[in-house]
Amino acid sequence: MPPEIIAVTRQIRALWNQFDWLPEWAVIVLVLLVFVGGGWLTHKIVFAILRRVVKNKDVFWRGAVERARVKLRVLIIIIGVGIGVTVSPMDPGPSQDIRNILQFLFVLTLGWLASGLLDMWSVMHLKRYNIAVEDNLLARKHLTQTRILQRVAKVILFIVTVGLALMTIAGFRQWGVSLLASAGVVGIIAGLALQPILTNMVAGIQIALTQPIRLDDAVIVENEWGNVEEITATYVVVKLWDWRRMVLPLSYFISTPFQNWTRENARLIGTAFFYVDYEAPIDRLREAFEGIVKASKLWDGDVQVMQVTDITERVLQVRCLASARSAPVAFDLRCEIREKLMAFMRDQCREALPRDRLEWPQGEERPVSPPAPPGPEGLLRPV
Length: 383
Fold this sequence. Notes:
This protein has helices at about 5-20, 25-55, 60-65, 70-85, 90-125, 135-165, 175-180, 185-195, 195-210, 250-255, 280-295, 325-345; strands at about 220, 225-230, 235-240, 245-250, 260, 270-275, 300-310, 315-325, 355-360, 380. By secondary structure, it is an alpha+beta fold. Strand 2 (about 225-230) and strand 3 (about 235-240) form a beta hairpin. Helix 3 (about 60-65) packs antiparallel against helix 5, helix 6 packs antiparallel against helix 7 (about 175-180) and helix 11 packs across helix 12. The termini are far apart.
């Protein structure tokens, strides 16, 4: 025990002997109140000094001091209670037990303080980037890295804090050592039990560094399309197009192939297929397609291509390509192309609509077909 604490203890005992009419518990309570009050006053003074010191500093330091206000108060009060218990006329056994509990709480509070500083750093780092803009690739990159590394660091900080706190209690010291060093039977069992969590934590670090996915990326996983909504320390939440949520472990994105539509940028080429008759005027259809795309507000002005990509026994397959600035916009553009080009074929180019043809060998009588109803020419006609 430090000499100063021993000297204070002797002075308090001498003072108690002068006022021996006070019961022991009252002296203990008074001593604790004095030291708790002193700790509270010390916190006020220290915090006022810190505020003045960081007044002209950047936002990080001012925010860190504000976030640490409550935690510092708890730390100082714990120290004050510990000193009060030590110097009071309390029996050695209960005094030692209380000090052990205070040491445990002190270590936990230090971990709480470190976690708050980590959160403050993350907030200040992410303030430099705006994810609300349309071209937010750089912002999503830093947001993903920061969130994953922050959560992994908090998990590690939690384990270290709890391990160090347990080491302050004699009966649980071995548990703390096992938790920190993963040694012994308890450590082996815990390691086996936590293997999936540790695997996902390692995968999270890989994702943060290599970034196969980022927050708000458009991905296709398990044959479902959606956007990455949340990345935690162990799993990823994908918001599907119909607002369902798919939850996948982080290791999935390291070990399983998937599609990322916004890996480098959000631009995408949309595809629309049409099936037209052999006699369809491809030039007219291409002209109509180009007019539809150029008039659309969804087109980004880059890619527009229409080609015959296949010939079947009944129809021609026509593929229309048009680019857009993002996956949702590309989906809407594809739908617009289908609707308007189909309306064009129906109203202005009916010869492009698919037909079935029948042919009889020469010399055979053809069956007399009933008169065609009035109106547009039917889709079924002899050759």
